[in-house]
Amino acid sequence: MTKKRKLLGALGERLAASHLEKRGYKILDMNYRCCMGEVDIIAYDGKTYIFVEVKTRSGLAFGRPIESINYKKREHMVRTALNYLKAKQLGDCSYRFDAVEVLFEGENLSEIHHVKNIV
Predict the structure, then answer these.
(1) Domains of the chain by residue range
(2) CATH architecture assigned to 3-115
(3) Alpha helices in the chain (DSSP H)
């Protein structure tokens, strides 16, 4: 991955976290990694833990960002989430899997779209 793409992805994650916070979500962790995979953002809305995949693109030439979240990525999200819940001893809690699409047109932010229940 190029440095430019890494920077774009990191910017997208920060914008997504800010977007979620403005809507009342509490950000608990970012870029949570374990042997099962990675989750970009872990948030809490007061009753549900939300595991969020952030996809950032600089245009739609290759389709919507969410279209790149394939079965394998969803499977890794689930495994990572279960690892997180176990590590935090959150046994019987409510959780879900969301995505946030961050789109740029050139260097300008054009859209942030939160999609709930992607798994």
Answers:
(1) 3-115
(2) 3-Layer(aba) Sandwich (3.40)
(3) 3-22, 71-87
